[in-house]
Design a protein that fits this description.
It holds the Pfam family CW_binding_2. This protein is of the alpha/beta class. Helix content is 22%, strand content 28%.
């Protein structure tokens, strides 16, 4: 599977996440740009906002959707192929604006006067579902599909990001905009362009750029704060209604010497490429998914009749491009708000499993970490869930695999995998979680005889072992500017609810500490109460949720649980993973696969949902549908005896299609704006494990267990 790394850190914003992107792109041989200077007035450099690759023209084969507005101001969804052929759906929408998600499998609808809702309805072949995400104000999709930028309402123009997976809203820019339309996200997922009052031309509008990382998980410390938009200098054109193409080209509606026109800025300043006839509602242009074409509505002088046009690039530019009439509105109606639907492959579905729990852990390791990429791993017992639960976040946060072995002897398959990961005998390290009663000294001796340095993370019991693991994380992060303000609790006596805790804890760089049912053991209480840096305690699952309430001295005590293990996994996903580009599924009836899979998902800062062996619980299905617009990859952990092929097929269908820019197998080609070598991509999901695979991924974690070794031995 191919993975795409982000190409640069724009505008010199060097957050922890930014450092991860830079490190990853350097490793992949991508062109890492220097900090861009402040945007000069009226200038736009597409490369500042684009990626080294572009979807091929095949992504543009979908229909163009418009809202056909009748004389009574009612709107209906209408779609057309480029040759004007109408496309019909099993379900009709009466909304005022329709915006396709970046995978073409979800459409957002602007329904005036309604609150955001989420429904699913049947669609004609080839998709199983058409998903409607309704918003009370106009909205535009993040290129990742995990969130939408929309206007907060009113006249301030304040922009809000809404995460589809959770419904959470976050203000992303201050209210200096001119109108109530949504901002247009940039293809790198790190900014957006809105319409604002011109600071230099009285009474005119300009375009403004603001930064936003579209973070995909619930650690608020990682979010970009709201910031004021920076005017781009198009005030003399009364610029409004921007759109940004996959290659970074900027398009907008402006008023020039010859009236209202469609303008593009390809890096040489704004150029009018077509008259729009009149200044009418709903004329925001839309780029095709590949960025090679533009669709726009052209109106008669009183806006009562319209035409849908497509402009194709000629010789790599929209200037003097090919203009084609697609269709005209029916008598007595007009078109508004065009949106181009992407055509992309189905979401990739992978099973990481083997004939037993040990083989499944090895399969996850092989997919997540290339040969020779590590000098360490975490080893836990295949027979003891408690130690594996606390070992998962250690592995996830240090970006190394979690492997399982039998308690009495090191499984030969595990030894083979460890040597694959660490072929250099001089640079091998394994951290064993649990005492000799859980993993025998014979295992330790076997490792040492093969050149592995070994350290145990262990305490007098499972609760003390969880504290020991927490201390490893404490020491490992000393001196690094990362938030360590949280601790997670999970029931150490019953595995199901604890299965969901690991990936969430990894998002917060936090440990998973074990409770004894609803009681907090003295060792755990002493650790949490003795660290003033811990401000928030999260109880995952019913018993741990009850136990979390005992920490009355902490500022935040949060309970995340459901009626059963499956609903708990959903609640964890909604709380900590608002978007799911990669979504993992594991059995809620067998702990080992969920734990090794959870370590991999934690390393990628992505959600893990629990399923039954032959059934997808209804609430899990609903959450999968919420993730649909963003999901490019589905990982199923465990063999067919644990998670059936029927379940694998179902969760794959729920994921829909891959996003046009980020889908791992979406056909792509070199972006001409970048050097040929910049599009090199590393196979496997290991780029995501390394951090920074996409904008908003988890901040850089220590990539070698030297950090873990220092923590354990220091």
């Amino acid at each position: 599977m191919a993975s795409r790394g982000n190409n640069h850190i724009r505008r010199g914003r060097r957050t922890a996440a930014g450092a991860a992107v830079t490190a990853l792109t350097t490793a992949l041989g991508l062109a890492v740009g220097t900090a861009a200077p402040a945007q000069a007035a009226g200038s736009w450099n597409p490369r500042d906002f684009a990626l080294p690759w572009l979807p091929t023209a095949a992504a543009d084969n979908g229909e163009i959707t418009v809202t056909q507005v009748a004389a009574d101001d009612r709107g209906t969804m209408q779609s057309f192929k480029r040759d004007g052929t109408a496309v019909s759906y099993a379900t009709k929408s009466g909304a005022r604006e329709h915006t396709w998600g970046p995978a073409g499998d979800v459409v957002a609808t602007h329904v005036t006067g309604t609150d955001p809702t989420f429904t699913v309805t049947q669609l004609n072949s080839p998709l199983e579902y058409l998903t409607f995400k309704s918003t009370s104000t106009p909205a535009q999709w993040s290129p990742l599909g995990d969130s939408m930028v929309r206007n907060a309402g009113g006249t301030s123009g304040q922009q809000v990001a809404t995460w589809i997976g959770s419904g959470r809203n976050e203000t992303v820019t201050t209210g200096t905009a001119k109108d109530t339309n949504a901002a247009a996200p940039t293809p790198d997922g790190m900014g957006a362009v809105l319409t604002m009052s011109s600071p230099t031309v009285a009474g005119k509008r300009d375009l403004g750029l603001f930064d936003v990382d579209f973070p995909r998980y619930g650690n608020s410390a990682l979010h970009t704060p709201a910031n004021a938009p920076q005017a781009l200098g198009y005030g003399d054109l009364d610029a409004r209604l921007p759109a940004v193409a996959a290659d970074g080209t900027l398009a907008f509606v402006g008023t020039g010497d010859k009236g209202v026109a469609l303008f593009v800025d390809e890096g040489q300043g704004p150029v009018a490429v077509r008259s729009l006839g009149a200044d009418c509602r709903g004329q925001r242009p839309t780029f095709s998914p590949s960025g090679r074409s533009l669709a726009v509505v052209v109106a008669n002088p009183d806006c009562t009749s319209t035409e849908l046009h497509v402009i194709d690039k000629a010789n790599g530019s929209f200037v003097a491009g090919q203009d084609t009439l697609v269709t005209s509105s029916a008598p007595g109606s007009h078109f508004e708000a065009p949106s181009w639907r992407a055509t992309t492959p189905a979401a990739q579905v992978m099973r990481l499993g083997g004939k037993d729990r040990i083989a499944t852990g090895i399969a996850s390791s092989k997919e997540g970490w290339p040969e020779g990429s590590q000098d360490g791993a975490v080893l836990a017992s295949s027979a003891s869930f408690a130690d594996a639960v606390v070992g998962g976040p250690v592995a996830g946060q240090f970006g190394i695999p979690l492997l399982l072995t039998g308690p009495k002897a090191l499984d030969s398959r595990v030894m083979t995998e460890l040597k694959r990961l660490m072929p250099n005998p001089e640079d091998r390290f394994v951290s064993i979680v649990g005492g000799t009663g859980v993993i025998s000294s014979a295992v330790e001796k076997s490792l040492k005889s093969n050149g592995f340095a070994v350290e145990r993370i262990a305490g007098a019991d499972r609760f003390a072992t969880s504290v020991a693991a927490a201390k490893v994380l404490d020491a490992g992060w000393q001196g690094l500017p990362l938030p360590r303000s949280s601790a997670f609790l999970a029931d150490g006596m019953n595995f199901p609810d604890a299965l969901s805790a690991g990936p969430a804890a990894s998002v917060f760089f936090a440990p998973v500490l074990l409770t004894k049912g609803k009681t907090v053991p003295a060792s755990v209480a002493g650790y949490v109460n003795g660290r003033s840096a811990i401000k928030n305690v999260y109880g995952i699952g019913g018993n741990a949720a009850a136990a979390s309430r005992s920490f009355t001295s902490k500022e935040g005590r949060y309970q995340v649980f459901g009626q059963d293990r499956y609903e708990t996994s959903v609640q964890v996903a909604r709380t900590f993973f608002p978007g799911g580009s990669f979504v993992g599924y594991a059995s809620g009836q067998s702990f080992p696969d969920a734990l090794t899979g959870g370590a991999l998902m934690g390393a990628m800062a992505e959600p893990l949902l629990l399923v039954k062996g032959s059934e997808v619980p209804s609430l899990v299905r609903v959450q999968a549908e919420r993730y649909r617009a963003a999901t490019d990859l589905v990982l199923v952990f465990g063999g067919t005896a644990v998670v059936s092929d029927g379940v694998k097929s179902k969760v794959g269908s729920l994921a829909g299609r891959q996003t046009a820019l980020w889908g791992p197998t979406t056909p792509w080609e070199q972006n001409p704006a970048f050097p040929t070598t910049s599009a090199a991509r590393k196979p496997g999901i290991s780029a995501g494990v390394a951090g920074g695979d996409r904008p908003g991924t988890a901040p850089s974690r220590p990539s070698t267990p030297r950090d873990l070794r220092t923590a354990s031995q220091g």
